[in-house]
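Handoff note, outgoing to incoming analyst
You'll be picking up this chain. Sequence as last confirmed:
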Amino acid sequence: MENNFKNKVTYFKSEQLQGIQLPGKFNYPHNYQPHPLCRMAADELKNYIKENFGTEDEFEVGKMLGVLVVQDGTGRIGYLSAFSGKLYDSNHYEKFVPPVFDRLTKDGFFKKGENELNQINQKIEKLKNHPEFIESQNELTECKIVAKNEISNFKKWMKTKKSERKAIREKQKPILHQDDYQKLEEELIRQSNSDQFKLKVLKKSWNREIDRLKNQIAEFQTQINQLKEERKQKSNHLQDLLFEQYTFVNKKGKQKSLGEIFKETVFEKPPSGAGECATPKLLQYAFLNKLKPIVFAEFWYGPSPNSEIRKHGNFYPACSGKCRPILKHMLDGTATDENPLLKELSREKQLKIIFEDETIIVISKPHNLLSVPGIEIQDSVYSRLQEKMKDCEPLTVHRLDMSTSGLMVFAKTKEAHKNLQNQFSKQTVNKRYTALLDGIPENQEGEIKLPLRPDVLDRPRQLVDYKHGKKALTLWKLVETKNGISKVHFWPKTGRTHQLRVHSAHKDGLNCPIIGDELYGKPGDRLCLHAGFLEFKHPKIDKLVSFEEAEEF
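Most recent structure output, in case you need it:
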């Protein structure tokens, strides 16, 4: 157990605490507004990082940092600091709490295991780069090419000979006696059989040479595969040992290892990097040193990464894939705010019917209302329409994010549903969104092409991924700017999850998050994104119909 918490706690001055009320409960880790004390602590930590490690631009790589406001046994209020992963190849700095387990210990089992794996990797690379192995691979490639060409040329020669024999038959059959023609036919058949035999000999000859080279390569490949299997087994064993060293404690004093925690999840095994995030480090240190956790926040320091959206100085919730199972255990026994997303935030807001006939219904969805029922929240556009439409079932054609407001169309008949779905899938529906951006884009208009895929370790976040992501295209135009805020129109040409939010916030997009975007920007009263225009062919009359609804921000 640590006994030097005074070295890790930075205490607030009494004047800093004046007028600030401590929260009654610990904040919900995966969706929160940073508390004033966390903002204050974060500002101090940024200055410390700047003075000791470098400015945003000088920083090694972007890093998630965390602060945890705590209360000690005497009632004094201060904060702990932590970084995710390692910082400049070290886990230990005076300002920061230590890791739950230090995998970087020089003589520790993990470093020894890593060295063993590195030695195996070196053996594999040595075999892969062995001159005889490379030469055999090159020879095999060349041998296959030469064999293919030679066999192909011989087949062409055989075809020519076959044509010549056919011509001889056609010429000699009318003029030769039957016995003489029979002898000629036997000779021509003999020539044909001889050519077929030569082809077989040629193929066997090349096959023997190819097999010889394959056997030479196989000797190396067998050794490589054996080393890879040894590496896999050692790596799995090392990971299992590592998972058992990461043991997390909660307020009740109950301890659980990473392996135990993740057995209860869909992952079954901890993902890479689990236990190395800032918040578990902070809570671990607090519980071990009898410090009461009050409230926490995480923020990004340094340059933005290429795939996920992280901006210098912005606060972000704890991740889902790595941290949610750990924090569920660690916060057991700690009074914590409920998940704000589980509140039925839009019960007081009514659906606005824009248009309705016997085949379709067009509505304007308020923000913070689901399009369709969720796992834990049933209130949605669909459920409300279901209550309203007693004579038929509303059929969902498309969706809007819970936080997004605006126009949606539902079908009333199967025929209309199929027709509208076809229009959406063929991207013939004209949609225009309006958004307020935190910042001013460099250009007046343009297109954004950033392929997207889900972040499997932090759903529902999306990542930009040029290798595995799906095509995503957005057209945009600047409408106006005022006080550093921009109003833009978006015309999404694809319908990827969070497409407009990511295309707005990413450094290779507009680099201006949508105001109120708690996932990719800064939390606010609401996400300022509105589906304001919708145009499609009416499924019954086959004529274009359009609908427009102004934003309320």
